[in-house]
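Students often ask why inverse folding is considered easier than folding. One informal answer: many sequences map to the same fold, so there is more than one right answer. In these notes we will look at a single instance of the problem. The structure comes first.
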């Protein structure tokens, strides 16, 4: 389907402006010392992320797409994410918060002029306004990174949001059968899909059963109370080494006080809600829980088939609920809420097979390593995906409450190291058809 240039222009402008509104919130809700501080060696100072957002936008949309002269070529190296690990970024000659805000504002004003003048055709960067969509997604991804930094920072709460609505219909079974057979994985038609989502290809998946909701805090607590962190048989060798080295005994930000489990969430300490999806667990913790439950993590292909396959039409959908863009009735996205919704929420967002909360709430660890699809071609630069293939990275799918809809769809692939706990990650489990579950 061909979209007219004015509609593309409006879509791109809306995505860019929405991302900037969120960036502004995340970088104006704390004072300057908080912006320049490194709250964890795992994360950049917030002011680095802010200027990096502007620098990427300048390089791709002003210089490459717009053909404009470089505005600040002197800072390209400073804000090169591949040149400087996060732990070393505070030592760089960073722009001050005022300079960074001024820089990103000036870049954005010029970018909107480029967008207004562009024909939005004439090559893969311009077709369907891809470059503008890529940069909107990039900014939203860094907004999620900055939200993680806000979770890691100490001190009083700087952000607030209402809790997710209670939308469960109370009729969700524990698991459903996903029939075996071929399905179409990935995409060749989604206009703003990134290179690792491409191309569409047929994939065989054998029949399996999958949880209809992510694993809850209450279920994970049973693993803890059964001595899960003290029993090496549930853990991979690498995971058990992490448990011993770091003294792990619960998800990140949890602590036990008397007979209660508490968590810290964006500066507020509260009781762990048993019916929310568990979050801030590593791949190793997810894998250990699944083994303890007599189950396993789903493969990436299994996850995508459960999320996208329509057995009646025998086709893959853009989202679990169909082809329409997400609405607040479908999923918990976009930082509208600062926590996952209760398990069983968003019945309008379930897949044709009856699997819920596949989009939003928590990123979901899958069993697989991050690898290219058959026929993969890096675009528009190798450092987005290709340099991470074949390494130690595990795939996460589905997005979280911290992800904007522009950077989340049924084909979207995220990846991270299996030790990571600060990210908004949970999981669901699966089992082979015909294999009884111990859970």
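Output (designed amino acids):
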């Amino acid at each position: 389907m061909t979209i007219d240039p004015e509609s593309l222009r409006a879509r791109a402008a809306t995505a860019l402006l929405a991302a900037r509104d969120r960036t502004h919130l995340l970088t104006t809700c704390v004072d300057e010392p908080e912006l320049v501080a490194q709250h964890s060696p795992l994360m950049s100072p917030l002011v680095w992320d802010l200027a990096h957002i502007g620098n990427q936008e300048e390089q791709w949309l002003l210089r490459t797409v717009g053909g404009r002269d470089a505005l600040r070529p002197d800072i390209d190296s400073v804000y090169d994410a591949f040149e400087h690990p996060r732990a070393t970024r505070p030592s760089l000659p960073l722009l001050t918060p005022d300079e960074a805000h001024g820089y990103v504002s000036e870049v954005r004003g010029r970018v909107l002029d480029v967008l207004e003048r562009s024909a939005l055709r004439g090559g893969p960067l311009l077709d369907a306004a891809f470059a503008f969509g890529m940069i909107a997604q990039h900014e939203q991804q860094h907004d999620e990174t900055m939200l993680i930094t806000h979770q890691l920072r100490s001190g009083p709460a700087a952000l607030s949001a209402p809790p997710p609505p209670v939308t469960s219909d109370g009729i969700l079974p524990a698991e459903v059968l996903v029939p075996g057979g071929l399905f179409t994985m990935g995409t060749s038609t989604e206009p703003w899909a990134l290179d690792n989502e491409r191309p569409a290809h047929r994939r065989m998946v054998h029949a399996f059963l999958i949880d209809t909701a992510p694993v809850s805090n209450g279920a994970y607590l049973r693993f803890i109370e059964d001595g899960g962190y003290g029993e090496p048989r549930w853990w991979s060798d690498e995971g058990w080494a992490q448990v011993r080295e770091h003294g792990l005994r619960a998800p990140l930000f949890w602590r036990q006080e008397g007979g209660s489990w508490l968590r810290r969430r964006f500066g507020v300490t509260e009781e762990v809600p048993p019916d929310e999806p568990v979050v801030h667990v590593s791949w190793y913790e997810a894998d250990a829980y699944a083994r303890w439950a007599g189950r396993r993590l789903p493969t990436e292909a299994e996850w995508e088939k459960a999320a996208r396959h329509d057995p009646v039409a025998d086709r893959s959908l853009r989202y679990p609920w169909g082809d329409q863009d997400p609405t607040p009735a479908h999923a918990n996205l976009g930082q509208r809420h600062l926590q996952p919704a209760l398990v069983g929420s968003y019945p309008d967002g379930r897949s044709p097979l009856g699997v819920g909360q596949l989009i939003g709430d928590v990123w979901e660890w899958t069993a697989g390593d991050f690898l290219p699809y058959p026929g993969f071609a890096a675009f528009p630069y190798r450092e987005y995906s290709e340099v991470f293939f074949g390494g130690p990275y595990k795939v996460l799918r589905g997005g979280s409450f911290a992800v904007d809809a522009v950077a989340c769809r049924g084909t979207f692939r995220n990846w991270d190291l299996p030790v990571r706990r600060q990210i908004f990650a949970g999981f669901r489990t699966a089992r082979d058809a015909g294999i009884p579950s111990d859970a």
